[in-house]
Amino acid sequence: MLQPLDRATKQRLVDEISPWHHSIDLGDGVVTPGGKTPHHHHDELRRLRLPDMVNKSVLDIGAWDGYYTFLAEGAGASRVVALDHYAWSIDFKKTTAYTVRQQAAGQPIRAFHTVPDLWDPVGLPGKRGFDLASRALNSRAEVVVDDFMTMDLARLGTFDVVLFLGVIYHLEEPLCALRRLRQVTRGVAIIESEAVLLPGSLGQPLWQFADIEHFNDDPSIWWVPTAEGLRAMCFAAGFSRAEIVAGPPQPLLPRRAEAEHYRGVVHAYAPA
């Protein structure tokens, strides 16, 4: 059994990991310096409108540093499974330098899993943050390192609540992904995604193919839906009910004649 970490040790270990994606309170005043700040998480939780997770089973797909995995545990979930492989396999310490080099040379930024120096599915450098937070929080969450799109879903079973946050727009085949999501959902799936409002498209179920130049030079973004497009595809995937709980923000001024991006959220329910 691992010994508890004192404050100084927690802080030292947190500082050794860079960058962090999530801001996680590890206790003793130690908070991981995530790119998603505590304010960002607060705003995200407001938009997600997560259901009651007391005594529920929860699957966190794309767990990364584990903010939502540990949140579910703290909310009283009876079983929590953290699933990831992509973020855990990337050496994020090297991705910034790689991106800068490619831009300076006028070369395209390739998907990180195609760059051998950045991709390590054995050593899992991107999982160090999750492992440290799990230890500091004495987490009992089950950990599955696998590709949600290709793994045997029978290994997972089905869950009352499935978190699919910031994942769908990174996948080449979103309808296939949502059909697989339906297979592991016996209650509700919370789907959060980069979304777009296209000029004249309000209320239209559309999906935009991503142009890398418009998405922070991120080659892992493939498709960006309208909120209605995400909802419609949930029905096509076999969910019986789907509700948009976060759509385009209300404009303070007349909308511009160009695409507007926001974070959309849909709650998709399995048939009773």
Q: Keywords for this structure?
A:
single chain, seven-stranded mixed sheet, 28% helix, two-stranded parallel sheet, alpha/beta, 272 residues, Rossmann fold
Layout of SSEs?
Blueprint lengths: L6 H10 L3 E3 L11 E3 L1 H11 L8 E5 L5 H8 L4 E6 L1 H4 L2 H13 L23 H9 L5 E4 L13 E7 L8 H11 E13 L9 E3 L13 E3 L1 H10 L4 E6 L13 E10 L3
Task: Give a written overview of the molecule.
The chain is of the alpha/beta class and 272 residues long. It has a single domain (53-269), classed as Rossmann fold (3-Layer(aba) Sandwich). It is built from eight helices and eleven strands. It has helices at 7-16, 38-48, 67-74, 86-89, 92-104, 128-136, 174-184, 227-236; strands spanning 20-22, 34-36, 57-61, 79-84, 142-145, 159-165, 185-197, 207-209, 223-225, 241-246, 260-269. The strands form three sheets. A seven-stranded mixed sheet has the order 5-4-3-6-7-11-10. Helix 7 links the parallel strand 6 and strand 7 (185-197). The radius of gyration is 19 Å and the shape is globular. The mean pLDDT is 94.
